Amino acid sequence: MTKSKWKAARIVSYIILIAYTLISLFPFLWAALVSFVPLTYFDENGIKKGTDVMSWPPKIRLFEIPPKAFGAPLTLKNYVKVFEVVPLYSRWFLNTLIYAGLVTIGNILIGTLGGYAFARLRFPLKEFWFTLFLGTMMIPGQVTMIPQYTLMVNWGLVNTYSGMVFPKLANIFGLFLMRQFFMNFPKELEEAARIDGAGVFGTFFRIVLPNARPAIGALAIYTFLGAWNDFQWPLIITSRKEMYTLTLGLNFFKTSYYTFWPYMMAATIIMTIPMIIIFLSFQNQFVETGRAVAVKG
Predict the structure, then answer these.
(1) The last residue of a domain, from among 53, 81, 109
(2) How far apart are CA 90 and CA 101, in angstroms?
(3) Final residue of a structural domain among 81, 107, 135
(4) Which of the residues 4, 38, 87, 297 has an alpha carbon 20 to 30 A from that of 68?
C-alpha cells in the first residue's frame, strides 16, 4: 500500500471512529441535557408552559443568560427534586452500593482462589470440572431464575441483602478470566517462593496475588458495573420498596399516562456518576489485563 493510500485509509478510519463515538455518546448527552430542563417554565410573556423534551431540534442556546434548551431555561433544581419526589431514592442508592459492592468482593475472592486452583493445583478430574463450569455459561439466565428464587423463598431470604447477593457471589466468567491470567503467570516466581519455604497459600497470597492486580482490577470493574446495572434479579428477589435498587426505582418517575423525563434523567445521571468515576479511575486495568490474559494456542 502506497503512502497516500495509507494516509487516506487512516483518515477514513478516524472519520468512522468519530462518527461511531458521537452516535454512542448522543443518548448520554441527551439525558444530561434533559436533566437540567424544568418540567414547566414561564415564557417572556409570563405564560406558564410545559417543556416538550421530545421536540426536535432541541433549540439549544447555552451561551444565553440563562442558558436554554427546548425553549426552557436550564436549572439544577431537578437534582434536588429527585430526592423530594421520591424520598426513598437515597435508600435505593445505598441498596445498590451494598449489592454491587458485596457481589464484587465475592466474585474477586471466589474467582481468584478458583482460578488459581484450576491453573496451578492438581486434583482429580480438574479439566472435566472446568469444562463443566464453562458449559454453564451457555445456559440462559432465564432458566435458573425460578430455581434460584425458590431456594431464596425456602431459606427465607426474600427482600434481604443476603438473598440479593448470595446467588451472584460467583461468576464463571471471573473464574475463567483469573485462570487464564494465572496460567500465564511466571512459574519461576512461585518456584523461588517455595524454595524459600513458602507453602501453597503463602505463595499465593505473598507472591501471586499482589502481581494479579491488573486482572483483579478488571474483574472488579466488570462485576461492579454489571451488578450496578442489574435489573432482573433485584426485580425478582425484592417486593418491598425499601429494598429496591436504582434500576427498579427509576420506574417511579413515570405514571400510566405521563413520564417525568427531567426527573428521570436527573436520577439516571446521579446513578451513572459512580460508574463513570470507577471506570475512568481503573481504565488502565483493561489494557494491562488484555496484555496479560492470553489464551495459549
Answers:
(1) 81
(2) 16
(3) 81
(4) 87
- Does residue 297 belong to any structural domain of this protein? no
- Residue 15 half-sphere exposure toward CB, CA atoms < 13 A: 6
In a domain, 277, yes or no: yes
Same-domain pairing of 75 and 111: no
Distance CA(167)–CA(162), nearest Å, equals 9
| 3-state SS track over 36-81 | CCCCEEECCCCCEEECCCCCCCCCCECCCCCCEECCEECCCHHHHH
pTM of the model: 0.83
Asked if 34 and 262 count as a contact pair (C-beta separation under 8 A), the reply is: yes
Domain count, the chain: 2
pLDDT in tens, 235-292: 999 989 999 999 998 888 887 777 788 888 899 999 988 888 877 777 666 556 555 5
CA 175 to chain centre: 18
Phi, psi at 287, each rounded to 5°:
-65, -45
Q: Which amino acid is located at 119 in the chain?
A: A
